[in-house]
């Protein structure tokens, strides 16, 4: 039995709570850890506490029962499980085309204590999406799902790129709405951030069929790009102008050392290109998946090959890259410590995703190298279409985020029963739970249904 579960958690750091209605980025950039909450949550503590205490007590007693070793003075319980946690993809799991998926709202309520055991389960968000600061995405998600959300539990596709700010001085940032991606990059510490708009403003002939709007003309910076050395290109979010952006990236790739208006004889003296993810398809408001940043990457590589005859090597961040899952592990550790004073890593992280090529592949591969278990759950509300064979096999496939949460909680309860009753298999534990439920002992399935019904 891991000691972690009986160690009295350190007093978590005090959090400031901001209403999602009037939370601003500035307010979110204060030093103390911040949580964005729906207005109605601002004053009210969640009502799961009492139930939570009882349930934790039961769990500890069960553990006491199963391991006589643990000392009689077990510390007081918390209502947060330290055994497992969840990590959620966003597009196609919680949100579709900017609108919340109804079951996702319920799933969050279950994780925040509205469940048979009244326990809270820590969770983080790991999206390949981006184009806004983590803080802005937090305010947005808090409003969409009616939950408390904090930048401390949020990873965008470009979040790990902040570690490159020290390496590159002048960088081109591509994608997203208006000036948003420049703000994100400057927020990460990149000193000198230029955009395609700045380049077109300097030389409108760069993109024959693309003229800047009045707004873009106003917001774009006047620079003489003949003298500006662009050291790296970062595609932070989905491009809103595939033709113009690819023209400008190609100009730089074929340039002499990153100076626009120059041409290299060898076509390999240009700056490196980094994509914040490699999703060829993603789940938006259309019924069928849409082309994503990974498709732009393929198109750029094909054009470079067509024009120069050479292969183009670019780097992608985001899921399924192991770097993003290592980043998620550190973020989850910090989040559980900050919010619940839990130090030890969870035994299991349930990763809920809709895209086999990024969510499931990444989780399965990370599970092979990670200290703890990463358990992949595929939902049917996004890219993955029922009846097709996912390229990377998940541990479980369920209809939606709510079913994913109940699946994980049921599995953990079976594990707990199996351990507590020293049963040789989860199957027997399931039978024990069943038996208990027939004897009207509260169990997951009946209570879970009750929980879901009570959520209606
Ligand atoms: O542009 C983002 C999209 O490709 C996928 O986002 O949240 O499903 O990882 P997400
Ligand atoms: Mg997704």
Automatic annotation (TrEMBL):
<dbReference type="GO" id="GO:0005739">
    <property type="term" value="C:mitochondrion"/>
</dbReference>
<dbReference type="InterPro" id="IPR036412">
    <property type="entry name" value="HAD-like_sf"/>
</dbReference>
<protein>
    <recommendedName>
        <fullName>TIGR01456 family HAD hydrolase</fullName>
    </recommendedName>
</protein>
<dbReference type="Pfam" id="PF13242">
    <property type="entry name" value="Hydrolase_like"/>
</dbReference>
<dbReference type="InterPro" id="IPR023214">
    <property type="entry name" value="HAD_sf"/>
</dbReference>
<feature type="region of interest" description="Disordered">
    <location>
        <begin position="1"/>
        <end position="33"/>
    </location>
</feature>
<dbReference type="Pfam" id="PF13344">
    <property type="entry name" value="Hydrolase_6"/>
</dbReference>
<dbReference type="GO" id="GO:0046474">
    <property type="term" value="P:glycerophospholipid biosynthetic process"/>
</dbReference>
<dbReference type="InterPro" id="IPR050324">
    <property type="entry name" value="CDP-alcohol_PTase-I"/>
</dbReference>
<dbReference type="InterPro" id="IPR006357">
    <property type="entry name" value="HAD-SF_hydro_IIA"/>
</dbReference>
<feature type="compositionally biased region" description="Polar residues">
    <location>
        <begin position="17"/>
        <end position="33"/>
    </location>
</feature>
<dbReference type="InterPro" id="IPR006353">
    <property type="entry name" value="HAD-SF_hydro_IIA_CECR5"/>
</dbReference>
């Amino acid at each position: 039995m891991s000691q972690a579960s009986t160690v009295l958690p350190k007093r978590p750091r005090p959090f400031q709570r901001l209403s999602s209605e009037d939370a601003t980025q500035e307010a979110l950039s204060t030093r103390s850890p911040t949580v964005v909450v729906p207005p109605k949550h601002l004053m009210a503590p969640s009502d799961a506490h009492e139930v939570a205490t009882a349930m934790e007590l039961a769990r500890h007693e069960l553990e006491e029962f199963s391991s006589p070793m643990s000392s009689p003075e077990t510390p007081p319980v918390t209502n947060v499980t330290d055994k497992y946690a969840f990590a959620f993809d966003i597009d196609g799991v919680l949100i579709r085309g900017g609108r919340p998926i109804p079951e996702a709202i319920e799933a969050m309520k279950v994780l925040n204590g509205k469940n048979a055991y009244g326990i809270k389960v820590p969770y983080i968000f790991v999206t390949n999406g981006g184009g806004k600061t983590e803080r802005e995405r937090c305010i947005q998600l808090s409003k969409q799902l009616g939950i408390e959300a904090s930048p401390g539990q949020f990873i965008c596709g470009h979040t790990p790129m902040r570690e490159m700010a020290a390496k590159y001085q002048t960088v081109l940032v591509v994608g997203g709405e208006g000036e948003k991606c420049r703000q994100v990059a400057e927020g990460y510490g990149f000193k000198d951030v230029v955009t395609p708009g700045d380049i077109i403003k300097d030389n409108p002939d760069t993109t024959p069929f693309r003229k800047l709007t009045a707004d873009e003309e106003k917001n774009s910076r006047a620079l003489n790009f003949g003298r500006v050395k662009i050291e790296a290109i970062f595609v932070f979010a989905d491009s809103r102008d595939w033709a113009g952006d690819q023209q400008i990236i190609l100009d730089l790739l074929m340039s002499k050392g990153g100076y626009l208006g120059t041409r290299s004889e060898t076509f390999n003296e240009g700056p490196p290109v980094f994509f914040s993810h490699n999703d060829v398809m993603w789940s938006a408001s259309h019924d069928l998946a849409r082309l994503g940043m990974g498709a732009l990457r393929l198109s750029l590589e094909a054009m470079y090959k067509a024009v120069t005859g050479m292969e183009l090597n670019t780097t992608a961040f985001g899921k399924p890259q192991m770097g993003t899952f290592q980043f998620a592990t550190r973020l989850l550790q910090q989040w559980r410590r900050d919010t619940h004073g839990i130090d030890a890593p969870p035994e299991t992280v349930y990763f809920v995703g809709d895209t086999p090529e990024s969510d499931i592949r990444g989780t399965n591969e990370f599970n092979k190298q990670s200290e703890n278990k990463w358990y992949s759950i595929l939902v049917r509300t996004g890219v993955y279409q029922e009846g097709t064979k996912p390229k990377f096999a998940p541990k479980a496939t369920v209809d939606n985020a709510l079913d994913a949460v109940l699946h994980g909680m049921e599995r953990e309860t079976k594990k707990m029963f199996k351990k507590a009753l020293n049963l040789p298999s989860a199957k027997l534990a399931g039978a024990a739970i069943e038996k208990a439920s027939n004897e009207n002992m509260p169990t997951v399935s009946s209570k879970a249904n009750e929980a879901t019904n009570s959520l209606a």
